[in-house]
Protein 1
Amino acid sequence: MKPWLVCSGSVVRLTLHVQPGARKTEVAGEHGDCLKIRLAAPPVDGKANAALLAWLADCFAVGKRSVALLAGDKSRHKVVAIDSCLSEAAVLALLHVQ
């Protein structure tokens, strides 16, 4: 069980540590109780948040409306909800995390 991942009903909740301004967007492993995401978007005018939500929607093969930022609008520490009926094992496989 990962502390940064909660699967409840049809919602997957991720607690993330986001590093904007990286060369490419990718999962960078665990960072304490969070999953670290390197993000290839600048932390300017909400561009990093929009890029993060779009990247997660693409990873989970859901529409952009199915991904919501619950907390951390102006912080590196973010909580995201994804409306997707996936198991914990499926989420770990999609994000390439062991």
Protein 2
Amino acid sequence: MVKSCIRVYANQAQIDDCKQSIEDVSASVTRISKALNLAGNEVRLKILFLLDKESQMCPCDLSDVLGMTVPAISQHLKKLKEAGIVKYEKIGQTVFYSLAESNSHILNPIFNLLASEKQLAI
């Protein structure tokens, strides 16, 4: 197997432009990649979907809906919170989680796809 490039010439302007483009979006790529990586877990995607649908939920409600223990849900929420994908608000003794606005544009297309898939299945 040949592992060398066989191009006739390098388009240095294109290469330089592409390098600059990658540099320009580097921070966004990191943030979006992190969000998608976390949302790639089935349970976390379900949690994010529910938070989008309901605006906010507590871990106990998520536990009931998903049939999981509260500690298991809390571990997923912790990862999402640390990544800045969800935020929380404590009201009395209850903690309510919601989606962070900063990532809504990343996740909304996924939620729209989930909604359209649901309609196709009907």
Protein 3
Amino acid sequence: MKAAVTVTPGNPEVILLREVMKPKVKPGWVLIRVKAFGLNRSELFTRRGDSPGVEFPRIQGIECVGYIEEDPSNTFAKGQKVAALMGGMGRFYDGGYAEFTLVPLEIVLPFESRLPWHILGAIPEMFQTVSGSLNQALEISEGETLLIRGGTSSIGMLACQLAKTKGLTVLSTTRTDEKVQALKDNGADHVVIDDGEISSKVKTIYPEGVNKVLELIGTRTLKDSLKCIKTGGMVCMTGILGNEWTMKEFTPMGDIPSLGKLTVYMGESSNLPKGLLQEFIDEVEKGSVKLNIDKVFTLEQVPEAHRYMEENKAKGKIVVELK
């Protein structure tokens, strides 16, 4: 089979298209014929050698959609449409950057849909992350104010839409004036230009601060995001768009405001209740939710797609579709 193999840690050029052996199925695992997959920021870190415990060469990819090719447990019939995500996929065993992938049964979610594969490929990890961040981590509720830091990312765009359906007022950030209209068109009530320090700008809109912050930039802006919450507010760090894992200095009793809450979301497929993925796909199919897909690449173009992601050019999800 063909696979995009990360042969060694490094820049996007370390990902090479190769002919490799098709995985052999084993008990407790299922073989999936991959039709599409989304690119994720964590895969950039893995490629660069920043993910602990990853051995190279490695076929990356923490998610995919496709058909069941073989399932020795007979849980799924051959040809069943499925998604697979997380659970060590693309890190501790080979993942979705290939024509076939062998994954544990417990990370596989079935679905039915008439949507094209490139749209389905954008959904699993993005939806799992947004749903878990908003509902489980931030525990959003109607009438609250939500600041999305990193609003033009695929996670940020979908988070805005889902928060609006729950009755929240959304502030969303971008670093450039060119993306302001895209955020407004996506449903944001307020758009804030992010120059690294936006707490004073947020306080001009809501002097007491906002209820919740979805932090997608990461450690670079976390301290400033904590300054944006009102008394008893909460910040959830979900993304690392700023490309920095750790903070040089952090003083909990000082950087976290009194009675403020700081949490993180690092979800797995198990965080998606059964049926929730199907419900979301149905909403996309009906047009109730609009996915922001920026660009679709081929398997041969995975290195180019990684470079595009690393340069922060996308205004939505980057997808790879296999023909």
